[in-house]
Amino acid sequence: xxxxxxxxxxxxxxxxxxxxxxxxxxxxxxxxxxxxxxxxxxxxxxxxxxxxxxxxxxxxxxxxxxxxxxxxxxxxxxxxxxxxxxxxxxxxxxxxxxxxxxxxxxxxxxxxxxxxxxxxxxxxxxxxxxxxxxxxxxxxxxxxxxx
Length: 147
Hints:
By secondary structure, the chain is an all-alpha fold. The chain contains six helices and no strands. The radius of gyration is 20 Å and the shape is elongated.
């Protein structure tokens, strides 16, 4: 019986990873993701084009500070996500897990993933507020020329 549980755990992990990839991976065919990208800028995009958009040292510092703060919060959420994922895997590894227990653990995983995504969007909004209208336009132009 132990070997059956041990054998089913990696398969459960595989399914969890597939589920997580589906939920967490943006696709370029997703109109919502495309619309978000049209209005929000990732920190690496700003860093890559800082000279082209005339990013001021004060703006750079605000962006850096926002990124560091978000990274700390997201790191804590990632720890929580790992714990919630492990708890889900434990239940899935049971020979006949109760639906309610699986769904409870799945909800914990999805809730934490949602918190990570929300924090990421908040970071992008913070960054956007730092940029002028002209800088945003210049970033859009620079991104368009890269594609």
